[in-house]
Amino acid sequence: MHFRRIAIATLVALPLAALAQAPAATGKCVARDGKVNVKLTTTAGPITLALDKAKAPITVDNFVKYVEAGFYNGTIFHRVIDGFMIQGGGFDKNFKEKNTRAPVVNEAQSGVKAGLMNKLGTIAMARTSDPNSATAQFFINVNDNDFLNWGNPRGDGNGYAVFGKVVSGLEVVNKIAKLPTGAGGPMSRDVPKQPVIIESATVVGAGK
What we know:
- With 208 residues, the protein is α+β, with helices and mostly antiparallel strands.
- The chain has helices spanning 2-12, 57-68, 108-113, 170-177, and strands at residues 35-42, 45-52, 75-81, 85-92, 122-125, 138-141, 162-168, 181-184, 187-192, 197-206.
- It has an 8-stranded antiparallel barrel with strand order 1-2-7-5-6-4-3-10. Strands 8-9 form a two-stranded antiparallel ribbon.
- The longest helix is centred in the N-terminal third of the chain and has 12 residues, at 57-68.
């Protein structure tokens, strides 16, 4: 348990050095009501996410805008911990940190009240110790990480906002989680020795 509390502070709460404006999305955000699917085509295989617009509207809009702008194309899963989570969306394959838009409000509290929990296969926003600092980085839970939920006394209480779940490709997520890791770029550990690149992220239609 102590290890997990340390892990969330040092691994998921990754400081972002750049908060400059990213290029504006070229199209309108297609996530309206209900759910929308986003497909991550990775070098380890495809992962399809159903994003919950109704329960996490701000977070989903933010994520979809990054997707539509092509922001995630060429980024890597840079922190991987088997039994915990896989994190990506902030660095390219050369470990260059990407510029992001301004942070979004943390929807963890309203999400938990609506039933969005950090369970196996869910996707949530990474952030620093500031609850409202999430920008582009995200993580996919590979375990039931209840201590990451808003109000859980085992975490910082502010929670990490869940905004969707894996509906196809969970085996790919688990494969990534089990890759050998070590040092890489600015990180001293937990970087996959075999790089996993998000080749493309695209909106593919209504979710489940």
